[in-house]
Amino acid sequence: MKIQSAFNTGLEGFQHASNKASQAAASIAAQTLTIPSDYQLDQAHNSVAGEQWQKVDHPVGINQSIVDLKVAEFQAKASIKFIKTADEILGTLLDVSV
């Protein structure tokens, strides 16, 4: 039985969760920026009062990104538990053999 592979599996899971969280956070940040290209001119109010802009909604984006961020959090927590369990197993094996 290779204990090292258990550590690698936990580490790979944690790295995957970290990458997924970074992507979700970047997506959330990109969708919440107030960039003029995300806005359309409101034709009813563009006369004397000046130009007023109306935000165009992104139908799915931000909700899915928030869910992805939460999934990445749970995946990271599970990977950490996996690494701790592998560490405890290794410690138990060393205690038995010494």
Oligomer: single chain
Low-confidence segments, ≥5 residues, pLDDT <50? Answer: 45-51
Query: Quick one: biggest sheet?
Result: 2 strands, antiparallel
Helix percentage range: 55-70%
Mean pLDDT: 76
- Classify the secondary structure makeup into a structural class: mainly alpha
| Global outline | rod-shaped
The count of DSSP E runs of length 2 or more, i.e. the number of strands, is 2
Rg to the nearest angstrom?
A: 24 Å
Please give the alpha-carbon distance between the first and last residues.
18 Å
* Pattern of helices and strands: HEEH
| Percentage of β-strand residues | 5-15%
- Total number of distinct structural domains: 1
Side by side, the strands of the main sheet go 1-2
Q: State the helix count.
A: 2
Features:
mainly alpha
Structural account:
The protein is mostly helical. It has helices at 3-32, 61-97, and strands at residues 39-41, 53-55. It has one domain. The longest helix is centred in the C-terminal third of the chain and has 37 residues, at 61-97.
Q: How do the helices and strands line up, and which of them pair or pack?
A:
Layout: H1 3-32, E1 39-41, E2 53-55, H2 61-97
Antiparallel strand pairs: 1-2
Helix pairs in contact: 1-2
Q: What can be said about this structure in brief?
A:
The protein has 98 residues and is mainly alpha-helical. Helix content is 68%, strand content 6%. The protein has helices at 3-32, 61-97; strands at residues 39-41, 53-55.
